[in-house]
Design brief:
With about 500 residues, the protein is an all-alpha fold. It has two domains: about 110 residues; about 375 residues, no CATH class. The protein has a two-stranded antiparallel sheet with strand order 1-2. The longest helix has 30 residues. The protein is globular, with a radius of gyration of 23 Å.
């Protein structure tokens, strides 16, 4: 008789935890290098056998938000990032095996042809003669298609308002934890943060292919760190915080049982904003502002839109007083934000990537089929299959990054997917069920902020933005298809009816 999958996972988890405890008695280094992989394999085995996809995805979100970057930087090994692949593909592999064994018909989600085209374009680039080796080319392919399974999992799993709200709770808690860590790191000297591990030292002092993640306080002449929080690059805590804020607003507006958790939610929001502020990332600050603004615009079209504004104002006050009383000095210390004051934000945003954006037409002409996959982005610094010599090209924006890596075909397909996602996310604002409409509006708001942020970074190849993009696309594909099949009640699109009082 076969054991239940939950019992199998429990036994594996207990065995792995026992081994980890035994190793922990030796040294912290052994925990990271020996114990963590064993425990990871135990968790992956449970994920493979489990059919509770909402729980396995929750574990993956926690791992990506709290452990993935820390393990990479503390060990100084890029191999540590394979842990997230082990977990993700354990979920996807288990789901695929169950479909095959049970001979269930596969449901083809909308946008599937676009996703397949994206994968094919990436794989074809392996044959580009400019790549140093096939193995390095496949390492380059990984950064583009690593999180594609989340599209299908998002379509199959995120099918209720409750699961969407669960995702938002996870995001705000992860953002709060990163906010605390970012606050601690912001008070450290570069040498103190570098002592956290080899990867932290590379982040702080830089490498042959990367500049140091520090900034100089012009008033005092003192060098300060740009905290990575629990991510693998600077500004991670700020980006996670920006992604979590619309979801926090959605939870606050949900009412019902959520009201009893408002105080805890307020504390998490304060800590998430602390993560944004202390990240010393202007991109994170602007992304947070765009995400919140987009959420308000998407929800104010409903008859209860005033509630969104009131809740946003209340949370703003909570955040303000939290920063000024509990974390006094966080916003008054050395920072890089003077250039994004309200009077300067547009000019700064344009100037920051003006040169990069101006290169798009040039790159379209010079590299119509790309300049070699894996030459830039996270894979650009990988030594797998031979080191890549710097081509000197500017990949500091999503368009230039995609052109360099995948040429015009890759650029067109990815932006077709992103534009479809934004269009579908905005169209779902007409749903009549308030809690569901607000939840999907929060998801769409973050998606819009991530897409806009692509002009100052390659968001499709970095965590946490890349996994979010694919999960959100799958979620929009499901709810969009439900709306098109008239399975969801919608409200009138007429402005007069929308603004009319009940």
């Amino acid at each position: 008789m076969m054991l239940p999958s939950s019992l199998v996972g429990l036994l594996i988890g207990v065995a792995a935890a026992t081994f980890l405890a035994a190793v922990a008695l030796r040294s912290t280094r052994d925990v990271i290098h020996l114990g963590a992989p064993v425990l990871l394999c135990g968790v992956a085995a449970w994920m493979f056998f489990s059919e509770r996809y909402e729980w396995t995805l929750a574990v993956l979100v926690v791992y990506l938000g709290l452990l993935d970057g820390f393990l990479k930087l503390s060990t100084g090994s890029t191999v540590a990032t394979l842990g997230r692949d082990v977990l993700l593909y354990a979920i996807a592999g288990g789901a695929f095996v169950r479909v095959v064994l049970r001979r269930r018909p596969l449901e083809s989600p909308p946008l599937m042809l676009g996703v397949i085209a994206w994968v094919v374009i990436c794989l074809v680039q392996v044959l580009n003669p400019v790549v140093p080796s096939i193995s390095h080319a496949f390492a380059g392919v990984r950064q583009h298609i690593e999180f594609v399974p989340l599209f299908f999992l998002g379509y199959a799993v995120m099918r209720s308002e409750r699961r969407l709200m669960g995702l938002f709770w996870l995001l705000i808690i992860v953002a709060a934890v990163n906010g605390i860590v970012s606050l601690v790191q912001s008070s450290l000297t570069p040498a103190e943060l570098a002592a956290w591990g080899p990867g932290y030292a590379s982040e702080v002092f830089g490498t042959a292919t990367q500049t140091g993640r520090t900034f100089l306080d012009s008033a005092t002449g003192v060098t300060h760190v740009r905290p990575p929080a629990l991510g693998s690059d600077f500004g991670f805590g700020g980006i996670v915080g920006a992604m979590a804020l619309p979801g926090a607003l959605a939870i606050a507006m949900a009412g019902g049982k959520s009201r009893r958790y408002i105080p805890f939610l307020g504390v998490c929001v304060v800590l998430a904003v602390v993560g944004v502020v202390t990240s010393q990332s202007r991109t994170a600050v602007l992304s947070a502002a765009i995400a919140v603004m987009a959420f308000l615009l998407l929800t104010v079209t409903s008859r209860r839109g005033l509630t969104a504004i009131v809740v946003a104002a209340l949370l703003t006050l909570v955040t303000y007083f939290g920063l000024t009383t509990v974390f006094g000095g966080v916003t008054s210390g050395p920072n890089r934000y003077s250039s994004i004051a309200p009077t300067k934000v547009i000019s700064t945003a344009v100037a920051a990537r003006q040169g990069t954006v101006a290169l798009i037409p040039t790159y379209l002409v010079d590299y119509p089929l790309g300049d070699g996959i894996g030459s830039v982005g996270p894979a650009g610094g990988s030594s797998v299959g031979g080191a890549v010599s710097s081509n000197g090209l500017d990949a500091e924006s999503e368009p230039t990054f995609l052109i360099i890596e995948l040429g015009i075909p890759g650029l067109l397909i990815m932006y077709a997917l992103l534009l479809w996602g934004m269009r579908m996310g905005v169209s779902l604002r007409v749903l009549a069920e308030r809690r569901l409409q607000v939840a999907l509006a929060a998801l769409a708001a973050v998606f819009i902020a991530v897409c806009v942020g692509g002009f100052v970074g390659a968001n499709t190849a970095n965590s946490p933005t890349s996994p979010f993009i694919w999960l959100a696309l799958g979620t929009f594909a499901y709810w969009g298809s439900e709306m098109r099949r008239c399975r969801l009640a919608t409200r009138s699109r007429r402005l007069r009816t929308t603004l009319a009082a009940r």
